[in-house]
Amino acid sequence: MEGFAVELDGVSKSYSNFEAVRDIKLKIRRGEFFSILGPSGSGKTTILRLIAGLLYPDKGSIRLMGEDVTFVPAYKRNVGMVFQDLALFPHLNVFENVAYGLKVRKTPEEEIKRKVKECLEIVNLDPEKFGKRKINQLSGGQQQRVAIARALAIEPSVLLLDEPLGSLDLKLRQHMMSELKRIQKTVKTTLVYVTHDQSEALIMSDRIAVINQGSLEQIGTPAEIYENPATKFVAEFIGEMNFIPAEVYNGGLISEIGYIKVSNLNGAKRVLVAIRPEKIKIGCRNLDNVYNAVVEEVAYVGGFLSVKARINDFCLKCLTSSDLRVEENQKVELGWRADDAIIFEA
After folding, report:
1. What is the pLDDT of residue 1?
2. 339: how many CB neighbours lie within 10 A of its CB?
3. What is the pLDDT of residue 178?
4. Is 125 within 8 Å of 146 (Cβ atoms)?
5. Strand partners, 208
6. CA gap 161, 100 in Å, rounded
7. What is the number of other CB atoms lying within 10 angstroms of the CB of residue 256?
8. What is the largest CA-CA distance in the chain?
9. Backbone angles phi, psi at 326, to 5 degrees
């Protein structure tokens, strides 16, 4: 399906003297799994509430499916929303919770039964088994599914999810990530997902918008965001990163660890060299940058070794195969290719 499901053009929102979001411009494609990622207090939930119509912007415009809805109230927007606390009705059973939005819209009874059954099946809950259960009789994961089914029942043009997996344990959260992606592909709806968890965004998303202090830092695919961060904040927030302060010298860079060869310079005199831990190789000499180092810490992290090594008085973190024998205080050679470094102006 062509076109955009959500368009924000220069959207800003303030509370008293605090600017929650500032000049946000983004376009979310129809049928896309789009994540809004950022730390707590960055403004990502404010953006979601603006899309939902629970807040109105101070500046800018909002379009849903090509229609200007900037000041259209929430109940007139065809969006479904799953909140972090789920907001399920404890006095209603599963069927009644899923049917709630349909009843508000005065949907015929037979159609309500059909849609509720269909939505419960989409989220892998047996309507016969779970339909009459009270909410407090469900596990956390089952409650998540009911909340998603309720949002899907009204057949929203856009489904909004505000950190819905935050209260789940790790194993259940990983399972629900897979389920959310499956559900989104099944119903082919546009899904906008707010999270502060980088792994959730990287695993599930078609594209990601990274938000910091109310501003948009970068939009891109998970690979683009991870491999080519546009700003130091994105580089630091997404995954782990080593930063080495350096100055331009003789076509390369001089730093605390010595001379660094790079593939491109951005014209600045003082820079930060950013290098991912997994890009640093131990025991390889045929690299552009090779240094003598001493291992300070070694930690096993599920099939990999996290190695902290010191070059002169500067420490770098490396991620290498657990097959490699590395011990504390061991002298090693480590290095990386010039192309693997990202340069930011200091």
Report:
1. 47
2. 11
3. 87
4. yes
5. 35, 220
6. 18
7. 11
8. 77
9. -135, 135
> Burial of 159 by CB count in 10 Å (0-12 exposed, 13-18 middle, 19+ buried)?
buried
Nearest one of 275, 276, 329 to 298, comparing CA atoms: 329
In angstroms, what CA-CA distances link 339 with 130, 264, 330? 55, 8, 28
- Count CB neighbours of 21 within 10 A: 27
Task: Say which amino acid occupies 60.
Answer: G
pLDDT lower than 70: segments of the chain: 1-2, 167, 266
CA torsion sign for 70, 76, 78, 84 is positive
Q: What is the rounded CA–CA span in Å between residue 310 and residue 332?
A: 10
Provide the H-helix boundaries in the chain: 44-52, 94-104, 109-122, 127-130, 140-153, 170-187, 198-204, 222-227, 232-237
pLDDT at 2: 64
Q: What domains are defined for the chain?
A: 4-236 (3.40.50.300), 240-345 (2.40.50.100)
Structure tokens at 174: 């990983």
Whole-model pTM: value is 0.90
Q: How many helices (H) and strands (E) does the chain have?
A: 9, 20
DSSP 75: G
Look up tokens 């592909």; give the residue: 185
